[in-house]
Specification:
The chain has 532 residues and is of the alpha/beta class. Helices cover 34% and strands 17% of the residues.
């Protein structure tokens, strides 16, 4: 039976009115994750971008206006793991960028093995690429990213090639867990950070487009400069040189240039064995953290991101053909406004917005003070072993020979006194499936989806709306809508123009792409996206 006849048969027997995708199976899947690409950004930036990038995808492909993660810890590791496994942290195992595991009693990085080799061994769910490669070893799965964890967690364990940029060495690299691409040495020559020394990032958005202010309260400084344009990349000899590159659109140019290099060298999409290319763009996260979501820097960066997406589409159209690829543009998480900014915004009727930030040291002091008062000075330096938000891991040695339930009760009671915390719950509470105090039904679901029995800490915390944890100017990592909401657009083979208001999630990407490729992902949290 031909593929088209199969589609017609399925369409006849379906009783629902959901659209049925009947396009030709693509030869290449390209997934671009713009780190921190919040769901409302396309609308916010519509007046400052062109017509051949994001707008072309919206015009000629499908765009989902209501796409949100349904897990609570919205940060890089869990988000990128969700994109191509189709699973939330309770299944994928990636509960944070770092976590401790009771099964090994070790604390580890989300993209490394027990001895520190960078790889996807911590993933407990297969990626789309893993499933594809299991079916046909001729299929290639390639990842190119700035952050190692972005590419690794999208590509998976069976990637043909997985390369990332090491800011310490100023080199593109891989690890012993993956084969060394024959083209990697040449790519390091062709795509180098050094060429950007002394380059200037200038603001280009005309005043008629009503750009954001170039001096936002509480925003960070550009390395070696100030918080306003122009920004000049430092000399190669300056210790902050690489940071000045990463905090500029030049690092975004690097990742797109590297991805184009890999696309060409691997000859992706050129045969009948379908391939996958994952592109992790972290520049948007670096700039967002430092300047905040309402800065001119973020606005200018997405204007340039639009140009790079336009160039990528043109390249794919030329090299692979629109009928032979599917391009997905999405993100791993959103971002919260800068607390100091939103707290001081003038509101109608003098309304005050409660916003603030919480430091890890405050949390440690609260726990240590309460437990020391009740149980005495700990045998170790602190009762707290590690804080990897949203988890607080207690020191087993310090609480040995003490009633664990009473220790947790005292610690939770102390933490709940912090005004900025919305949810404080024990691991035991979540393991029983109970909703933590302060969580409605939806919030409870998000928290549960981020809970992993072996990797979640003894105590779980999430801040109130507009409160953040950490020292970054702006950040994310909460179950609030601004952190969960992300962009999702698709363009390519068999995808007809459509703007959808259906409630969807990034975990829907993997099962949808699997369907297009004729794969079965197994048990996943995602569902197939509605496609015409």
């Amino acid at each position: 039976m031909t593929f088209i006849r199969f589609c017609l048969l399925i369409a006849l027997v379906l009783t629902s009115h959901e659209p049925v995708y009947c396009g030709t199976p693509p030869k290449l899947i390209v997934v671009v994750s713009f780190d921190q690409y919040r769901g409302d950004y396309p609308q916010m930036f519509a007046g400052v971008i062109g017509t051949r990038g994001f707008a072309r995808i919206q015009r000629e492909g499908v765009s989902y206006s209501a796409c949100s993660f349904e897990h609570a810890n919205n940060i890089t590791g869990p988000g990128h793991a969700a994109l191509l496994t189709g699973n939330y942290p309770y299944r994928s195992g990636i509960v944070g960028n770092n976590f401790c595991d009771v099964r090994t009693n070790a604390c580890t990085y989300c993209a490394s093995d027990s001895i520190g080799t960078l790889d996807a061994s911590q993933l407990e769910s297969p990626t789309l690429g893993d499933v594809l490669r299991a079916r046909d070893r001729k299929s290639k799965v390639v990842a190119v990213s700035l952050k190692d964890r972005a590419g690794i967690l999208m590509a998976g364990k069976q990637a043909t090639a997985c390369v990332w940029f090491n800011a310490a060495t100023k080199k593109w690299e891989t690890s012993s867990s993956y084969r060394i691409p024959t083209w990697l040495k040449n790519m390091n020559v062709k795509v180098s950070a050094n060429v950007y020394a002394g380059k200037t990032w200038k603001a280009q958005i005309p005043a008629s487009s009503s750009p954001a202010l170039d001096d936002v309260m509480a925003e960070g400084l550009y390395p070696g400069g100030n918080n306003t344009f122009p920004h000049v990349v430092l000399k190669k000899s300056d210790p902050k040189f690489m940071m000045s590159v990463l905090l500029s659109p030049f690092s975004m140019d690097m990742v797109f240039d590297a991805a184009a290099f890999a696309l060409r060298e691997e000859k992706l999409g050129k045969d009948n064995a379908p391939d996958v290319l994952c592109i992790g763009v972290s520049t948007t996260d670096y700039v967002g953290h430092n300047f905040g979501p309402n800065s001119l820097e973020v606005q200018e960066l997405y204007r340039l991101a639009d140009l790079r997406i336009a160039q990528l589409i043109d390249d794919l159209d030329t090299r692979v053909g629109r009928n032979n690829y599917v391009l997905v543009v999405t993100s791993d998480h959103g971002v919260a406004p800068i607390p100091e900014v939103i707290r001081n915004l003038p509101q109608q009727q003098g309304e005050h917005i409660d916003a603030g930030r919480i430091r890890d040291r405050e949390l440690v002091e609260l726990v240590d003070s309460a437990l020391t008062k009740t149980f005495g000075v700990p045998s170790t330096r602190s009762y707290v072993r590690k804080i990897y938000e949203p988890s607080i891991y207690l020191n087993d040695t310090a609480i040995a020979n003490r009633d664990r339930s009473e220790v947790l009760r005292v610690a939770v009671e102390a933490l709940r006194k912090h005004h900025g915390l919305m949810i404080v719950a024990t691991k035991d509470t979540l393991a029983l499936g109970d909703c933590p105090n302060g969580a409605d039904e939806a919030m409870c679901r998000y928290v549960r989806n981020s809970f992993h029995a072996a990797r979640t800490g003894d105590i779980v915390i999430y801040p109130r709306r507009y409160w953040i944890i950490g020292a970054n100017v702006a950040t994310h990592g909460t179950p609030h809508d601004y952190d969960r909401s992300v962009v999702l657009m698709m363009l390519g083979s068999g995808i007809k123009p459509q703007t959808s208001s259906a409630t969807v999630s990034p975990v829907d990407i993997a099962p949808t792409l699997a369907k297009l490729l004729g794969l079965t992902m197994g048990v996943v949290d995602g569902k197939e996206l509605p496609l015409k």
